[in-house]
Queue: 2 jobs
Job 1
Amino acid sequence: MRLLIVEDEIHLAEALVQILRKNNYTVDASYDGEAGLDNALSNIYDLILLDIMLPKMDGISLLKAIRKEGIATPVILLTAKGEISDKVIGLDSGADDYLAKPFATEELLARIRAMSRRKGEVLPDNTLKFGDIELNTSTLKLCTDSKDVKITLKESELLEFLILRKNTATSKESIIEKLWGFDAEVEHNHVEVYISFLRKKLTFLHSKVGINTVRGVGYILEVQS
Ligand code: CA
């Protein structure tokens, strides 16, 4: 999962980035509303943590702007104590949840897990299932009923992306944007390398799941018959 944090309290933002990275999320941070809007509009995020009081553009305006563009990324508002009316406005403006500052790390992580479950495929304990495989994005373990193998964070992110887009061909460009971010100088063959790592691990597991190449388009995750 790729998360965006929009928070102008640098210390809080940096602490959040560290905690989330430790929990195997890919995280970007923006420190004002305009930068946050730019990032959010790229539509590469699975979840946005959004502060309300921000320089240049406040969180509620940012939220309205992305919803107006049809971006449905779940948003958790980070509200300061006592901003009850902000909470109501926030939920009315298209936020999915809110968390009052200061909050405990465990609560934040629980809310994030709940939010990703709401999207459908992510089971409790951060596991995703597809065909005969189960991917645990916390422990970085990929398994079938009989075997398991450790995978790297990037492999896990790639496989998660393919699982969530199941039955849809995924281009190398969108994989690069998702895994490395917008401005990354990553070549197409980088993606090919990670795809081949994953294929080797699926073969090792004797899984029926395969990553098929769709000529001129990209990759698709399929259960081979
Ligand atoms: Ca703030």
Note: The first helix runs from residue 10 to 22.
Job 2
Amino acid sequence: MQYVTLLGATGSIGRSTLDVLERHPDRYRVFALSAHQRIEELLHLCQHYKPLYAVVANASQADWLQARLTECSVLVGTEGLCQVAEDERVGMVMAAIVGAAGLAPTLAAIRAGKKVLLANKESLVMAGALFMAEVQRHGATLLPVDSEHNALFQCMPRPGTDLDVQGVERLVLTASGGPFWSTSQADLVKVTPEQAVQHPRWSMGPKISVDSATMMNKGLELIEACWLFHAPEHRVDICIHPQSIIHSLVQYRDGSTLAQLGCPDMRTPIAVALAWPERIGSGVPLLDLLRCGPLEFSAPDHDRFPCLDLARQAMRAGGTAPAILNAANEVAVAAFLQNETSFMSIPVIISQTLEHVAGTPADSLEAVLDADARARSCALRLLSANRVNH
Ligand code: NAD
Ligand code: MG
């Protein structure tokens, strides 16, 4: 029986994780659940899953929740998140907070040597070098939950070792192409947040849905793959595969290509990460090859979706450039979701922020957080200048 801390319990990954955990009461017990806004939903989850701890964003939420829960201690803020991530009773931490807010608690779990199930790709994009060094130093295990990286992980017998030693030539990340894959450049200018969050294959939170629509999600995933699998950026390819049946592929020097296939449902990669190296039921039906239809592949369109190249550029620049890219993207996406800027200005804001904000070595948490803060204020300045023209 293992205690699991679930950071970001009310989100899309959080709910899918609880669905898998609930199928295996003999293996897992919920230690802590966290939420940032939907506190009533968190109350219902606590009443149902009976965690020892709940973590919320501020004191008034904590008072409200604590008054309704007797056998659960309610903690607050980043300090509370870090406490439930590093508690010695905890075996596994699911990092499913969205964005940079997940960085500190995920790092705390790594430094406590936990088995960390990583959905929060932004934290690895921001602080990849630091994360991988700390994983080594503290004997933590980092298991990718992102479906593409989970697929790559499953297609490699020794995922932590050097690609050349494993005989791997290339990693191929598949991308659905998002909701606007066949939208013309002229029409992309007019897309609304409501259209952008309607993903054709996956049901996800609003931020990652917009990232999928701009294809920055694939850019972030490219950086994520480089860190997780020690891959240079030029050995990671992107292939558009609208059906989202093949979740990614590993190509070996002997001509073999290994792929992982399955229905597009995050409960599969979550179950893989939870039970690895064992296999447990996830509630996802087996793929029916006779019904899944033809599988198509095409090259990405760099003109309509410039975010992919911006991410490659940031990864090549190294240091804090990926943290700057990520921060500018978070600011621009939040503004787009609030109807404060247009869809096509998202890559413009990111590109200009990368030009204006100086990168530094990313050798400490302070350096990464400093770059994140400088990039956010630059992106906000650019947005307010842009708003005049919008
Ligand atoms: P979501 O928006 O549905 O949920 C986000 C969760 O984070 C919520 O529980 C929310 O309360 C919490 N949260 C938000 N802001 C916070 C803050 N400032 N401090 C603390 N907690 C905060 O997002 P999601 O779709 O579940 O995605 C979560 C993470 O997993 C993201 O990093 C995303 O890129 C990654 N991911 C998601 C999917 C998917 O299918 N949804 C797939 C792959 C990777
Ligand atoms: Mg993914």
Note: The mean pLDDT is 96.
